[in-house]
Amino acid sequence: MFARSLFVLSVLGSSLALYTPLRPNNGTLLAREDAPTDQDLLASCPGGPGSSNIARADRCTLHNIVNNPPTRVFTILGDPQLNCGGLTTDLTLTVGGETTVSSTTTVSADVGFEVEGLSIGGGVEESTEKSQTISKEISITIQPGRQAVFVAGQNFNSQTGNVQVNYGSPQFQHFIWFTGATVTQLSPIADDVVFDVHESACGTDPRDLNNSS
43: how many CB neighbours lie within 10 A of its CB? Predict the structure, then answer.
């Protein structure tokens, strides 16, 4: 019975591993030399560029998930409309258009490649639409010397976590690894969009939403 327990513990120990830093006597953190880097782990995820240091992962999932407050991201619909030609009267013009907003993935460390294409499941993104089309046009009145753009503010679910990386064969003696770096995923919330008209003075950048001239 004792020997069987040892065997079970040995198998479990070889199955999963954290990308665990070593802690020397002075309290600072050092990366393990016998462990893959976060860059290797994320590159091996489905959709990643791969790494010569490690095999392709079977799957990657968000782990230790933290639900952040929703994030509203504003984007411009269509082209700016201007009343900047020297007229002294108002103009009634149509602003708006169509755009597609999509889920985004960012990582807390520089891993040397574009992470947007990675397939990382387990979060809210897995159960929601990964993209949403926004389309709207309205008529507005623009005073002389002014310009305007139509703006859509799409609300996104936001989640942050480490990435659990599963392999079909042992990599660095383990089937499962976890990244030290965190990944944040933004996923559009269906039908949660607000619209606004952003005006600014002629001669400035009409697409600069921080421009309050």
Answer: 23
CA angle in degrees (0–180, nearest 5) for 58-62-64 = 130
In whole angstroms, how far apart are CA 190 and each of 21, 154, 193?
A: 40, 9, 8
Q: What are phi and psi of 38, to 5 degrees?
A: -60, -35
Helix (H, G, I), strand (E, B) or coil at 83: strand
- Distances in Å between the alpha carbon of 177 and those of 38, 40, 57, 91? 10, 11, 10, 61
List beta partners, residue 186: 104, 158
Instruction: Please give the span between the terminal C-alpha atoms of the chain, in angstroms, as a whole number.
Output: 79
Quick one: which H or E segment has residue 162? Answer: strand 146-171
CB 194 within 8 Å of CB 153: yes
Stated pTM of the model: 0.74
Of 6, 137, 140, 154, the residue nearest 71 (C-alpha): 154
Which residues is 77 bridged to in the sheet?
150
Mean pLDDT of successive 10-residue stretches along the chain, which has 213 residues: 39 48 37 79 94 95 94 95 94 95 90 84 67 94 96 95 96 94 92 95 95 88
